Each structure stands twice: as structure tokens, then as C-alpha cells.
């Protein structure tokens, strides 16, 4: 049995950990206070009555292994199909219905449901941002992790990093040239996100829309998703270009600018109906440039990496990347009798 550290409790890290924990000791280190990473939801309102998916909005299924997993958890009521009407808005006019036959899935209690399901029984150390990975000496077989707040975690045979590419790079660059040189070619882009809870329904002919020719790229009525409370809740995403240009703006400024744009593209007056509002910046939201490999593993050092920046820049890609890394580590361990 090997002792394995996994950095990050997003979908890729959790999926990798759940496979490896069947026959190894796995400890996950997560900088936030919950799991799910970019598949997260937020509740707002006096009674937490407004629920928003403020990262991933939905996911699609193409690969057979992911299909098998999704079918299983759909039958358990963890995820369900979102049958909302998705439009394309161009200069404020509906120009199209977006791929009406595409099956879109969401978590039944928010996108976080998948992560919560995968995290069952796993040893996760929350509020622990790993800032450094090292060995006492080059001959030493065991890895040591250090957290930003000065904690030291010792005795790992293998360390796997499942953070976004830029954060993975800062951890692996000092220790593995072979992994760092690959991670360097992946690129993330930011997304500014605004959440609006309204006192009354907006009468629109769609539930969500890809928005063109606007600072917004996506708007979504969260209460059109299955099993969500019937309180009018909208998520607005700014385009990657606008988000990059306004990366260092304050949340208050971004909230006002994107709210104004929402009014413009929907042609609806929401002045007197906003009950709750919130702006969130995802610095590493999407991955315009991925690498070809589905995961990376340096078997000489016992260091690996996975995430949506490996092969597939979305929920499905993160799931598959975690699976691919677990397979790689398991086959490496099967050649090492001492584990
Ligand atoms: C705004 C937005 C919209 C999106 N829309 C969609 C969509 O509609 N459909 C779709 O399929 N995908 C979408 N995505 C992408 C999808 O969310 C991601 O592809 C997927 O969730 C990535 O999972 P991951 O495990 O690779 O990374 P993450 O979810 O980012 O997980 C990495 C984890 O590592 C942790 N971490 C990082 N550094 C450290 C450290 N040093 N120490 C400890 N922990 C650390 C982070 O806190 C995080 O929990 C969207 C993403 C965003 C942000």
C-alpha cells in the first residue's frame, strides 16, 4: 500500500483519489473549505433561498466511461438532465436555439453534487493550501508537503497535483522538469461572474443564452434547472476578453457593469427587483489551450498531475484526466512489489 498525497479536491483530484484509495492510503489537501473546485454553487438570501451554480453551468457526455458514471449517478438522483431552452442572443435579439438535441446535465442540488458524491469516505484536509513540495535529500524516497500556514506533512511515496495549470506549474517547476515543461504550454482564461436574485420572474422566451457581441458571454436562469427552488436566480458570465480586461476591477464595479449589460441584452428593467447580488472572479476559469496528454506522471520521481487542462477543457475532461492518472499510478505501483 502506497501513501499518496493529492493536491486539490476538484473533480479531477476527487476522481483520481476515489480510484486510488481502493488500495492505497490517500490524503487530499484542498485550499478551500469545501470540495468541487470550479463545480461549485452558492446560496444567497436571508433564508439561503437563491441557489446558483457560479462555476460550471452544466456538462455534456461524450466518452463511454464518463457515460457509464453519469448513468449510474443519474439513477441515484445525484445529477439530472436540464431541459431548459438555451438560446443564442445576438445584439439583444434571439438569433437561434442552441443545439436543442444536446443532453445537458446538472447536479440535482447544485453542480457541487458530483464532487460531494465522489468525496464520500475520502480523507480531505480542507483550508490547506500547499505551497511547497520537497524531499529532505535527493536520495530520500519520501515527499514532504508544506502548507502556506507553515504545516508540514511528511511521508508520501507519491504526490499528485490536480490544480489549474498555472497553479500546478508553480508547485512542480522546482521539482520536475519533465512535468513543468508540458504544463507550461497550457493556458487558462478568467471569467467574471455575477449572481442576481430577483423578487419576480423575468418574462423571457428562454432559460439561458449564449450572448454574442456583448461583454457577457452567457446568462442562465438557475431556477430552470431541475430540483432548484423557484426563486428567480440568474448567473451572468462575462466573456474571457472582457474578464481579462477587467481582471483587477473591484467586484462592485464589475457587478454594476454586468448588471447594466444584462438589462441591455434582455431589455428588462430589474431596477426594483434585485434582492441579492454578488460578483465573483474566477482567475483560472476555462482552458483555451490544453495539452495533448490526458495526464502527466514522472515515474522516476513519483510526481503526477491531472486536470481539465490535460486533454479536455470541461467537466468531462477533468473526470477523464483524474481517471487516467489513477490508472497510470496503479500500473506503476503494480510493478513495485514493495507497495
Ligand atoms: C465560470 C466557469 C464556467 C464553466 N462552465 C462549464 C460548463 O458549462 N461546462 C463544463 O463542462 N465545464 C465548465 N467549466 C469548467 C469546469 O468547471 C472545469 O473543467 C472542471 O470543474 C475542472 O476540474 P478540475 O478538477 O480540473 O479543477 P478545479 O475544479 O479547479 O479543482 C482544482 C482544486 O485544486 C485546489 N487547489 C489549487 N491549488 C491548490 C493548492 N496549492 N493547495 C491546495 N488546493 C489547491 C482548488 O481550490 C480546487 O478545488 C466552467 C468553469 C468556470 C470557472
Write the layout of secondary structure elements.
Layout: E1 3-7, H1 11-20, E2 25-29, E3 41-44, E4 50-53, H2 64-75, E5 79-81, E6 86-90, E7 93-97, E8 105-107, H3 112-119, E9 123-125, E10 130-134, E11 143-147, E12 152-156, E13 158-161, H4 165-172, H5 177-183, E14 187-198, E15 208-212, E16 216-221, E17 233-238, H6 240-245, H7 251-266, E18 274-289, E19 296-298, E20 303-305, H8 315-334
Parallel strand pairs: 1-2, 1-13, 2-9, 6-15, 13-20
Antiparallel strand pairs: 3-4, 5-8, 6-7, 10-11, 11-12, 14-17, 14-18, 15-16, 16-17, 19-20
Helix pairs in contact: 1-3, 1-8, 4-5
Bound molecules: flavin-adenine dinucleotide (FAD).
Kindly describe this structure:
- With 339 residues, the protein is of the alpha/beta class.
- The chain has eight helices and 20 strands.
- The protein has a seven-stranded mixed β-sheet. A six-stranded mixed β-sheet has the order 9-2-1-13-20-19, with helices on both faces.
- The longest helix has 20 residues.
- The radius of gyration is 21 Å and the shape is elongated.
- The mean pLDDT is 95.
- The structure holds flavin-adenine dinucleotide (FAD).
- Flavin-adenine dinucleotide (FAD) binds next to α1, β14, β18 and α8.
Amino acid at each position: 500500500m502506497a501513501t499518496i498525497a493529492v493536491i486539490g479536491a476538484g473533480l479531477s483530484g476527487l476522481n483520481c483519489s476515489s480510484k486510488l484509495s481502493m488500495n492505497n492510503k490517500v490524503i487530499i489537501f484542498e485550499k478551500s473549505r469545501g470540495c468541487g473546485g470550479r463545480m461549485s454553487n452558492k446560496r444567497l438570501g436571508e433564508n439561503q433561498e437563491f441557489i446558483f451554480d457560479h462555476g460550471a453551468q452544466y456538462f455534456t457526455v461524450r466518452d463511454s466511461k464518463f457515460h457509464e458514471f453519469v448513468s449510474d449517478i443519474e439513477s441515484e438522483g445525484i445529477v439530472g438532465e436540464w431541459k431548459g431552452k438555451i438560446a443564442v442572443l445576438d445584439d439583444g435579439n434571439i438569433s437561434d436555439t442552441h443545439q436543442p438535441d444536446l443532453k445537458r446535465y446538472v447536479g440535482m442540488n447544485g453542480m457541487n453534487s458530483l464532487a460531494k458524491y465522489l468525496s464520500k469516505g475520502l480523507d480531505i484536509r480542507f483550508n490547506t493550501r500547499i505551497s511547497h513540495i520537497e524531499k529532505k535529500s535527493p536520495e530520500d524516497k519520501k515527499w514532504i508537503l508544506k502548507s502556506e500556514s507553515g504545516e508540514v506533512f511528511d511521508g508520501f511515496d507519491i504526490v499528485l497535483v490536480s490544480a489549474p495549470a498555472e497553479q500546478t506549474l508553480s508547485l512542480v517547476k522546482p521539482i520536475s522538469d519533465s512535468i513543468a515543461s508540458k504544463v507550461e504550454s497550457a493556458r487558462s482564461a478568467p471569467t467574471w461572474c455575477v449572481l442576481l436574485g430577483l423578487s419576480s420572474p423575468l418574462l423571457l422566451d428562454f432559460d439561458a443564452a449564449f450572448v454574442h457581441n456583448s461583454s457577457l458571454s452567457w446568462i442562465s436562469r438557475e431556477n430552470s434547472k431541475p430540483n432548484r427552488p423557484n426563486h428567480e436566480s440568474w448567473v451572468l458570465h462575462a466573456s474571457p476578453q472582457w474578464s481579462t480586461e477587467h481582471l483587477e476591477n473591484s467586484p462592485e464595479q464589475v457587478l454594476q457593469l454586468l448588471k447594466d449589460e444584462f438589462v441591455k441584452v434582455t431589455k428588462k428593467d430589474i431596477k426594483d427587483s434585485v434582492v441579492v447580488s454578488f460578483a465573483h472572479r474566477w482567475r483560472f476559469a476555462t482552458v483555451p489551450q490544453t495539452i495533448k496528454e490526458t495526464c502527466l506522471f514522472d515515474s522516476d520521481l513519483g510526481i503526477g498531475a491531472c486536470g481539465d487542462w490535460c486533454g479536455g477543457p470541461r467537466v468531462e475532461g477533468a473526470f477523464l484526466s483524474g481517471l487516467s492518472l489513477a490508472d497510470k499510478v496503479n500500473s506503476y505501483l503494480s510493478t513495485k512489489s514493495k507497495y
